[in-house]
Amino acid sequence: MKHAKVIIIGGGIVGSATAYYLAKRGVTDVMVLEGSASIGHGASSRNGGGVRQSGRDVRELPIAMCAVQKFWPTLSEELGVDTEYTQDGNLRLGKNEAHMKKLNTLASNCQAMGLDVYMVDKEKAHEINPYLSDDVIGASFCPTDGHANPLTTTLGYYMKALELGVKFYTKAKVKALKKVKGKVSVVIMDDGEELAADTIVLAAGYHSRVIMNTIGLDVPMQDVIDGCIVTEMQPKMFGQMLGTAGADFYGHQTHHGSFVFGAVAGPEAYMDVPPETTNFAHSATLGATCRAVEGYIPDLAKAKIVRSWTGWCDCTSDGVCVLGKVEEAPGLILACGFNGHGFGTAPAVGYMMAQLAMDEKPLLDLSALRYERFYNF
Description:
Blueprint: E1 2-9, H1 13-24, E2 30-33, E3 50-51, H2 61-71, H3 75-79, E4 90-94, H4 97-111, E5 118-121, H5 122-128, E6 138-142, E7 146-147, H6 150-163, E8 167-169, E9 174-180, E10 183-189, E11 194-202, H7 207-213, E12 221-231, E13 241-244, E14 250-253, E15 259-264, H8 283-296, E16 305-316, E17 322-325, E18 332-336, H9 342-357
Parallel strand pairs: 1-2, 1-11, 2-8, 4-13, 11-18
Antiparallel strand pairs: 3-7, 4-6, 5-6, 9-10, 10-11, 12-15, 12-16, 14-15, 17-18
Helix pairs in contact: 1-6, 1-9, 2-9
InterPro entries: FAD-dep_OxRdtase, FAD/NAD-bd_sf
Protein name: FAD-binding oxidoreductase
Pfam family, one: DAO
């Protein structure tokens, strides 16, 4: 039976970042098992690239703040790739009083945790971004929020970890976990092969739920489809990440000039098809997203859409991720249920999952995000 000190299930940004931070600290006896044919094939390469702290649940906000303060500013240099990290702030837009009330509550919650986020009126919002529609009556603004490129960042972690000696395996589908003498120490592959490890990190998105079920664990979560569109290249307009109180869309302008916008999918959510086959947004979703964008940024009304795709978000019942060791499953570390918010926090999460795999105290207190919180559900 093959053995590794650490086996990481999932080759997305969290799994690849965990592998990198382990290898950086000298732990290179690591295997990363990715079920698809390519690294970062799931949500890690299909998200809108937001690196935001504002609007987050207070339980995960410290992780987002840590990622922005300690990791993102130097990540391009560290990984040797252009992550396209841009820190021009996040405007979360409102069009009516109900929107503004919601934004004010979110901002107040984050302010209480020490985040620099504040409300701006219509005049100030349009001063920050003169391309906004007159229908926008105000916004919350976090100047330290931003965005980055999910593809280059994920592959940067992968390539650096690979360079340091980590072994990555694609088309490596995991069937089950197994306990030996009370400890989770064996991974059973689809073909029946068994792999052993001192520690197993489960970071496989929604697939994590099926895998953990094999040892009697369960996290209440569902797979939610998110759709993205990319416009043709536009003149440089603005650098902020945008969001809306009405959850109409989110997005930003890339360094290339194109815009990437995302929105929760429509008809796709009701299609009876497995996640692996739904890679293209439905025309109804595309149209709704485009109309929403036009309603906030009129100058993009005639921009052509050159590409679209969908991605799957592993959404927990309480809206925040599951991180850490599991009391009833020694040897297992969970890193899943990111609710579509996982890209921006991934550097800090990967670093702390590596710490836990080395039996060290993590940078932050993760107790509010542990698996055991679901015992009372």
